[in-house]
Amino acid sequence: MAIEVVSASMMTSDETTHMARCVGGDLWVVSWLPGRTLSGQQAVTAMTIASTVANSRIPTTTEWAILDDLALELGLTAREAVYMVAQENHDYRKTVKPRRRSLE
Question: Which residues constitute the domain of residue 60?
Fold first, then answer.
């Protein structure tokens, strides 16, 4: 699992389509936590959670314990975090094609 920081403004992972973007200073938004602003450390934690559960298998008892510790840093339980990662699973890295507009 590798989390990559791109030009100090974005975090991505080779394990998941989720990403984190810096919105100024040490404030970050993470794709699976819409509406929340996190610290840089919390963004790393959120990306770690997303990468951990990305392979879509059921976590072991030990993994649940680790996920619980990580999620606690975000004010969540492991089960809440796993659910939110799955629910907000959009690939924001894709380039959006412009819509063709008619002048009529």
Answer: 3-87
Task: Please state at what angle helix 40-53 crosses helix 61-72, rounded to 10 degrees.
Answer: 160
Max mean pLDDT among 14-18, 47-51, 85-89 falls in 47-51
Closest-CA residue to 78 (of 69, 86, 88, 91): 69
Element (H, E) at 20: strand 20-24
Residue-averaged pLDDT of the chain: 85
Query: Tokens 């629910």 label which residue?
Result: 87
Domain count, the chain: 1
Residue 98: inside a domain = no
Contact 10, 32 (CB under 8 A): no
Q: Strands across the sheet with 3-6, in order?
A: 3-6, 10-13, 20-24, 27-30
User: For residue 92, what pLDDT band results from cuts at 50, 70 and 90?
Assistant: low
Residue at 100 is within a domain:
no
Specify the pTM: 0.80
